[in-house]
Design a protein that fits this description.
Layout: E1 2-10, H1 14-25, E2 30-33, E3 47-48, H2 50-58, H3 62-68, E4 71-72, E5 76-80, E6 83-88, E7 99-100, H4 103-114, E8 120-123, E9 126-133, E10 139-146, E11 149-160, H5 167-171, E12 176-180, E13 183-191, E14 200-205, E15 208-215, E16 219-227, H6 231-234, H7 240-249, H8 254-260, E17 268-270, E18 273-277, E19 281-282, E20 285-287, H9 302-322, H10 328-354
Parallel strand pairs: 1-2, 1-11, 2-8, 5-14, 11-20
Antiparallel strand pairs: 3-7, 4-7, 5-6, 9-10, 10-11, 12-18, 13-16, 13-17, 14-15, 15-16, 19-20
């Protein structure tokens, strides 16, 4: 099967789907390919900040997302044992300090708003296998597999929005510098008890961060920072000493913890690293989100950075296609617009990680 579009986006997560929506609204024909079967896959980063909320409102997407279900955080609290040592509350004229948005709701809302647009097409169960280049070295599309069938998608620009292990980045042989941070994160979810206020809670345990994020659906997502590479050893030990500090700080969670965290199999380990590509663009090709700049879980900013990439890139890419100049030199405008901010945010993440214990002084 042969398909054609102005832009082919590899990766149907928040950044790729938002970019496809915005390009289609601008009259740019866009095909998004996504390897999963739909929007109801597991995600970890689901909290958006005020800037992303404003972007979604600007593009008339927030109301539909809100209808599908969101949860506004009332405050951020830092605990030493059971004692609150610091609290961050909403500023003037605000009623929250961040929002939990299930990515299934986010993606569904964007897709619903896009599916009537003739310029928007989304292909699930589709995996990129090869990038296509012309004689001048410009990227002109992809070869992909959908349900065992090869698809050829010809495009003026290919966008890699396919995450921290980006296939597009690897196929384009774009160098990336990876940085480890000395820790990994274990994630788990449990049901919240009655009366659990939608709040982000931070605890210092043996020098490491323990974070609790309230979520829609009456759930709590819990993240434990552990020493880098330590999970294989840790899971050979008893689980109870690992859970005790959590129960000590939040005894109201004890029943839910005992019921839902009964073995190490109830946890998912995320290898923590950040990265920056030497370049985000080539002739006819662009990387956005984690494909261009992987963020750590600190501050829950990864999804926000990716969606801002899409917001910034859409008008730049629309203009480049209209002017028939999709060279790296032209596309570099996007990279120059975003790169310094991303670098600053990554530096701030490291600073937050190294000074975390000071918040409990």
């Amino acid at each position: 099967m042969n398909l054609q579009a102005d832009v082919c986006i590899v990766g149907g997560g928040p950044a790729g789907t938002l970019l496809g929506h915005l390009l289609a609204k601008n009259g740019v024909s866009t095909i998004i390919i996504e390897r999963s079967a739909g929007v109801n896959r597991q995600f970890r980063g689901e909290h958006i900040n005020a800037e992303t909320e404003a972007i979604l409102k600007e593009h008339q997407l927030f109301k539909r997302i809100e209808e599908l279900g969101i949860l506004k955080m009332k405050k951020v609290e830092y605990f030493s044992g059971r004692k609150i040592v610091k609290s961050i509350t909403p500023g003037n004229h605000e009623d929250h300090v961040g929002i939990h948005v299930p990515q299934g709701h986010l993606l569904t809302a964007i897709i619903e708003e896009s599916e009537e647009n003739k310029h928007f097409q989304l292909l699930f169960n589709t995996t990129v296998k090869e990038l296509i280049q012309d004689d001048q070295g410009y990227y002109t599309g992809v070869k992909a597999i959908q349900n065992g069938e090869e698809i050829l998608i010809s495009s003026k620009v290919t966008v890699g929005a396919d995450g921290r292990y980006s296939t597009v980045r690897k196929l384009a042989k774009i160098p990336t510098v990876e940085m480890t941070h000395g820790y990994d994160v274990l994630w788990a979810k449990i049901p919240a008890p009655a009366g659990w206020e939608p709040t982000t809670r931070m605890v210092l345990v043996n020098g490491h961060q323990l974070a609790l994020f309230s979520q829609t659906g009456g759930l709590i997502q819990i993240g434990w920072n552990i020493a880098e590479g330590s999970f294989p050893t840790l899971r050979k030990e008893s689980l109870q000493p690992f859970l005790d500090p959590l129960i000590e700080s939040f005894p109201e969670l004890e029943e839910s913890i005992k019921e839902h965290l009964q073995s190490w199999n109830n946890f998912v380990c995320l290898k923590v690293q950040s990265s920056r590509c030497e370049t985000w663009v080539e002739d006819g090709l662009i990387l956005i989100g984690d494909a261009a700049h992987t963020m750590t879980p600190t501050g829950a900013i990864g999804i926000n950075c990716g969606m801002k990439d899409a917001h910034i890139l859409a008008p730049i890419l629309t203009k480049a296609i209209e002017e028939k100049d999709i060279s790296a030199g032209q596309l570099k405008i996007f990279e120059m617009n975003r790169k310094n901010e991303i670098k600053t945010q990554q530096i701030m993440q490291v600073l937050q990680e190294t000074t975390f214990s000071e918040k409990f002084a």
